[in-house]
Write a structure and sequence with these properties.
Elements lengths: L5 E4 L15 E4 L19 H7 L13 H5 L2
Antiparallel strand pairs: 1-2
Length: 74
């Protein structure tokens, strides 16, 4: 997958808000949202340890969910 899993939105900024506005906010989406279905014979992690640490059996469905700082720069 070459597309980014980070999405952005622009919240309403009230003229009466006393706090400085956050103009653009971001959130991370899981990779499975962009797969219409799970293809047959999808590659699996080679060891159970890798799968357990990744939280999924398939590398194509793994997303490290970068911290907010990393997402804002994109």
């Amino acid at each position: 997958m070459n597309q980014s899993n980070t999405r952005y939105y622009y919240p309403y900024i009230s003229p009466l808000d006393p706090c400085p506005p956050i103009v653009r906010k971001s959130y991370s989406t899981p990779p499975h949202l962009f797969m219409g279905f799970q293809p047959p014979n999808l590659e699996q992690f080679s060891t159970a340890r890798e799968a357990l640490f990744s939280g999924t059996l398939w590398p194509a469905l793994f997303d490290p969910y970068p911290p907010k700082k990393g997402r804002e720069e994109a």
